[in-house]
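User: My instructor asked us to take a sequence, write out its structure as tokens, and then describe one feature of it. I'm not sure where to start. Here is the sequence I was given:
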Amino acid sequence: MKTKEEFSVRIDSELYKKLLYVASKENNNLNNHMLHMIRTNVQYFEKVHGRINTQNITLPEKESEE
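Assistant: Let's start with the prediction itself. The structure tokens for your sequence are:
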């Protein structure tokens, strides 16, 4: 099973509301809608630039919650 990573995104309220609206109109929750947009973007990038080799990419350290 693939490990799922979490990260935060800072977004202004107006754009956040619009994303919620679009996701609901597409009968989707916001998380799945964002995953779809991210996957589509990465697929397009790889189509243009070639496959991304993730072997040597290090994930950033998670911030500790105090």
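For the description part of your assignment, you could build on this observation: The chain has a mean pLDDT of 92. Try explaining in your own words what that tells you about the chain.
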